[in-house]
Design brief:
3 domains; 487 residues; 5-stranded antiparallel β-sheet; flavoprotein; Vanillyl-alcohol Oxidase, Chain A, domain 3; FAD-binding PCMH-type domain-containing protein; alpha+beta; 27% helix; glycoprotein; FAD; Uridine Diphospho-n-acetylenolpyruvylglucosamine Reductase, domain 3; Uridine Diphospho-n-acetylenolpyruvylglucosamine Reductase, domain 2; 14 helices; BBE; 7-stranded antiparallel β-sheet
Amino acid sequence: MMMIIFPFGAKFSIRNLRFTLPTTPKPLFIVTPLYEFQIQATIYCSKEHGMQIRVRSGGHDYEGLSYVSEVPFVIIDLINLRSITVDTENCTAWVQAGATIGELYYRIAVKSRTLGFTAGVAPTVGVGGHFSGGGYGMMSRKYGIAADHIVDARLIDVNGRILDRESMGEDLFWAIRGGGGASFGVILEWKIKLVAVPENVTVFTVKRTLEQNATKLVHRWQYVADKLDDELLIRVFIRSVNTKFNHDDGKKTIQASFTSLFLGGVDRLLPLMQESFPELGLLKEDCIEMSWIESVLYFAGFPSGKAIDVLLNRTAQWRLHFKGKSDYVKDPISENGLKGIWEYFSEDEKLQGVDILFSPYGGRMSEILESETAFPHRSGNIYNIHYMVYWVEEGRAASEMHISWIRRLYSYMTPFVSKSPRAAYSNYRDLDLGVNNPSYTEASKWGVKYFMNNFNRLVHVKTMVDPANFFRNEQSIPPVPGKKSGG
């Protein structure tokens, strides 16, 4: 009945190998509590001895902020706090913060074929961080993001109190739905409202290379992606591939993969596509009807026919060195602008892996007010861009080369994306945007990119609940200097 305390580092939950190097700062201890009071004890002890706390649920932290710090620190790893209770009668569930998205999807599916949840596609992502930062996924045009469906929560604050929605108050409850939980306390569990899904959905992935008119198709997609039927979401993955033409040895080209979920049958989907995006040339044979939970496996990259209990496996399908960045697009990028992106893929033959993902907004995303939750990226955004560069080999040279490449691409994108501020998605954490050093003024530079007009309200909430800034990391919400808690 005792919690487990590991001295120094355990690497199981670290998804980004950039933070497994011998030179990476290690925690003094990793605490894996079995009970909530053990988290309270860890907070008391850390405050007493001047140690920081980092909280880890799934470990998919782009900059390692949940398990790396330059000062003495302790990790609270919530891997043992992952129970899920699904109430199909009331269409709700309580989900402990250490559970993964995959575990949640599985527990819903074994109870109901017509209930689901709107969150991300990577099954090993922990709900603690994912939900508190927003939680975008394949049903977001229909239902919004995960944070939009949180109806209650329990957390431990800086004083060790366990609070629910009523006792924490609406300001703090607002802040942890999109503003990140780690700035305000330790999230214990979420109560979520489940969403209706049809017994069968339709998926498709249509791949087109530059030689197959990919540039014009991606350009056209921008004009329809956020205006399609709300039950239809089409993402675009951009990758460099090797292919063969005219029986030669193959050449490098760009491939755009149009990947879609439609909350209905193929006979309804095909007329919608013919009306709104006929240029793609979608055929019935491109489409697969399946249950919603089978679509979860499809988008996670599992092979057809895989049993759904694979979602209970917390071991990530991949562990690589990677660097990610994000943008928001409000006006379609020209064909020449897109061609400029393609050129970056062939800039360096040593690049080991690049993915660029365009995720459409519109639908329900545009109907919710920017101030409704702390997640602000709503009306006016056509799509989000997620840039990812990854590599296998260790060493400073490989790391610097790949990170330099993605920074150059990000600089190239400046004229084509949102401005004043150039917005970013906080779940794609990016320390290039700035850190909490040395002042609140510096923090506001990255803060408004993630949280737009909601940043100042987040600062106000932080000042009220944690004025001494105990719960902090390089991009946590700062309190106003010198202000005291209101109680």
